[in-house]
Structures are given as C-alpha cells and as structure tokens.
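Practice record 12: protein with BES.
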Amino acid sequence: MTFKDPASYTDLTQGKIKHILFRVNVDFSTHTLDIEATYQMQEPVHGSLFLDSYRIDLKKARTDGRELKWALDEQDEILGERLHLRDLEGVSTFTLTFKTSPEARALQWLNASQTAGGQYPFLFSQCQAIHARSIFPCQDTPSVRFSYSAEVDVPDGLVAAMAAEQIGVEDGTGHDSNVFRFRMPQPIPSYLFALAVGNLDFRELGPRTGVYAEPETIESAAWEFAENEMKIVEAEKLLGPYLWGRYDLLVLPPSFPYGGMENPRLTFLTPTAILGTRGQTSLITHELAHAWTGNLVTNATWQDFWLNEGWTTYAEQRITEVLEGKDITDLRAVFSEKQLIEIMQQIGMDSPLTCLKLPAERDADSFTTSIPYFKGCFFLQECEYAVGRERFDAFIQKYMASFQFQSLTTEAFLDFLRAELPEVFEKVDVETWIYKPGMPDPDTWHRPQSHLYDEVRQALENYEQGIRPTREQVQGWHRGQIFSFLQGLPHKIPAEDCPYFEELLELEKRNDAGYYSFFYTICVVSGYQAALPRIEQFLGKIGRMLFILRIFRAMIETEWSRDVARPLFERVRGRHHQITVNAIEGLLKRADL
Ligand code: BES
Ligand code: ZN
C-alpha cells in the first residue's frame, strides 16, 4: 500500500484485522459498554500492532492465556490515543477487555425523557467518520475491512439492533437481561459498525425490508416507508445485485445528528423523515444507494470522501429519475447547484475543501460539507455525457463488480476510469474537476436546467418587483419547488413578510423540518423576532445538523440575535449529540461567543 490515512494511526505494513468477536454488556446506569473483543488478524503479526482508540479504559490484553505488553500513547483530541501492542511474536488472535468512556464520541446515551415513549432509555452509535475507536480499539480507517459477530447483553424490556444479521435472543447472565446475537459475514470498514438499544418495535415492509422504531412511531414509519422494496429493485438495475441480505430502517429519536446513516443492512434515520406524505424519498434512496457506493466500494481515506458521497448522490439521482421522473431530478439538480455555490462562497472559492480530492486532514469530520456530494455528482454526470448513458451504465456495473468489498483511492478510481472509458479524459477536464478548487467554467459543463424551477424563478423575480406570489400560484407546487423558493428568497425581507410566507406556503400544516430550516433562517436575518420562541423549540428538538447549523449561523451573523445565540445554545445543548455540540461550539467560538 502506498498511502497513509491521516485520520488513523493504522500502519498497514503491520497487517490487518480480519474478524472480531464482541461480547458487549450495555450499562445505562454508568453510560458505558463493557466489552470483551477477540481479534483475528489476516496474518500473524510480528513486532508491534497500532490500533486507534479514544478514551478506552483497557483492562487486559491477552493471547492464548498469556498477557500481552501494551501501552496507550498520549491523548490527542482528534485522533485519540494510539494503542500500541508490543512484541507480538506471530500472534494472529488476541483478546482485549475494556470499558468505553461515558464521553465516547460514537455513543449517545439518551434518558427516557429524550425518547418518543418517555419510558425507556435509548442508546445509539454513530461511527462515521472516525468515532468507532471510541467503542473498540481498531484500525479505524476505511481501508481496512473486517467481519464480526457480536453478543449484546441489554436490560429487560429493551431491544438491541445492529447493522448486522440478527441470529437469536437468549436469556442474559442475570435474570433481568437478554442477549441479542448478531453476525456480519460481509467485511465492513470500522465506520459502518453500528449499534442501537431501546424500546424498539419492528414491522415487516416487504420480503427484504422492514422498519424498527419506538412503538409510538412505528405505525407512521411503516406507512411512510412502505415502498422501500421497490427502491431496491430499481437500485439493483443500476448498480448490480444487493449483496447484504436485508435492508431495514431504524428510526431514531430526534437528536440523531444526520438525516440518515448508511449502516449496512440497517440505515439509521432521522424521525424528521416521517412527513406523513411519503415525501422524503430521496433521503432513503440516498442511504440505500450507499449499500453499493460506499459500503460495497468504499473510499480508502476520508480525502476520497467524494467516491462515497458523490457516487451516492449520482446513483440517488438516477434511481429517483426512474421512480419520480426527470422533471423532479432536474429541479433537484438546480437546487443542488445553488447550494453548492453558496457553500463554496461561504468557505472560499479557492479553499482546498472545495476540491473533490480533499487535503490530508486529521479531523475527518471537518470535511463534512455538501461539496463532495454535489460536485462529485456533477462530475460523474459529465462522465456520463461524455460516453453516453448506455456505456456509462455498463461502466457502473463493472466498477461495482470489480471493487466489491474493497476500498480505493481517487487515484485508483481514475486509473480504472482511464482504462475503461478513455474518451472521458478527452472530453472532460478530469484534472480540474478532481484537483482544482471551485467549479469548472460554466461553459465547460452541462449546468442543470429545470422548467419546474423556471416557475419558481418567476415567482422570485416578481417578489423582487414587489409582487408577492398568490395562493393559486403556489398551490400545486412540488416539495422541491417550495424548497427552491425558500432557498431563492433573499435572507433579509421585510419582517412582516415572514408570517405571510409561512401562511402562503402552509408551512405549519406541512410540518416539514426541512422547510423550517430555511424559513427560520430568513426569520432571523429579517428580524422577525416573534418567531424566537418557536426557533428555540426547533433548535432544542431537531438534531439533524443540516437543518440547524444554518439557523445558528444566521443567529450569530445577525445583530439582534447575536447575543442570544450562546445562552440559547446553553439551554438546548444537553439535548444534542456530541457531534452536533462540537459543530455549534465551533461556530460560536469562531465568532468569539
Ligand atoms: N454518510 C452520510 C452521513 C455522514 C457523513 C456521517 C459524514 C458522518 C460523516 C449520509 O449518507 C448522508 O449523506 N446523510 C445526509 C443526507 C443525504 C440525503 C444527503 C444527511 O445526513 O444530511
Ligand atoms: Zn451519504
């Protein structure tokens, strides 16, 4: 291997983990997991083995009944501590006994009042990008894959779910616990390890599909996602056979910091996806597409993140085009381009973070912008235009089949592209797309166009002339048109227009957190202070970072709300995930708040 993952202490020359057997005890009273993990290596290890870890309380390291020598290096705030197993003389399996920290970054422990039912506590993990190391010592880089099996002991009344195949439930060690057994026979990178424990119900949706949620949410979830099986069928046509067995969803409590997380066999999902309209289809399509682009064929380091997210956004577009029509995907593409330009302007058009190949950074989470998603997708569309859909589709299938269960760098991908579709390099300036900041010149690529967007643009132009849109005009609008309208409105409008638009677009009735994310941002910038109590409620309830960071940013940048941002955050921070807290802290600190 010629590359090094800057976000991990892994040294690939020492060997790779092949399989892990976990025995996990979940302790809600101390917010810790007690774990015994037996590691099997691909080859016997001679000398040292470095593993990533984050605030792990390691008690014992053994092989064949012998103690192993080990040391934990000094703590690094981002990377954690390197666990150094020493003087291994041909060791191919070893067992670590340890406890996770209550501050484990991958784990969120919720008390009963933070759940829908209010009766039972809840635990969920979020390992992407570099948090798996806070659950178990591992080679926490997407360039290493391992299979695993797990036994998870949880208190009576609670259900354990993992991104793995469930193979049974037995009585636990005490009388008041149960052991859930799982296996993940397909090798996964560490960031796709996932566990949740709570009062979970399950509903079958189709032959391969189902949904887990709290009993209070299960009916609405089952209705909302009833069409998932159809999506797999469409996805398979584009990407090849689905190799993971089942595809279930897990609806989490509202503090889940993402829209969705593509944990294999079990997508973790924000409850804001349940709209009562089956309307948030693209989110599920996105996470499902990751089963191929990301989970089957994986970025080797987080610098190659676009290989996961750009490809997934492209696949999501293609599947949506079949299921919902080209009008809808055209509209989305226009919206995406506008978002892309806005973010690039925010972070600087020549920032290295606007390149598809990202700089060597240790803090992989700081990469997480929408740029790799949208820019990556537009690049792949250009590749498709260059050779035509038919040939590009054959290429997609071959790419998936050739690299399945492997991780690759951007450079390895480009080698494959050059070998399979050399004409792409004649027609598309690949070098610029991948390695140059900002966007290529507008006249060098097929910028998106949409007649559904044209209607929205007309309304926006009229508004700028002082003519507000009417109810008749917006009544039949698609969800994406409402989004584009809210996106296109100037952030600063006369304060009295805020309630007018809320009413006109029937935002309250639609109860869509995505709309409110845009709307409250406008309220803040426009000085519509009457909305503040509702904004606080929203920011205290919704955890999805995509929806709330924008509002915090607006509060910080607007004079009247600048001083209320910090105290408001302090009131709601206890309800948020550590990842979200860190992101908001970052915004506040940068503004000296
Ligand atoms: N894999 C990502 C979520 C993620 C990215 C977690 C980076 C941690 C680090 C997931 O597939 C995703 O992209 N979710 C999006 C929704 C999607 C429809 C764009 C989200 O959560 O907003
Ligand atoms: Zn994604």
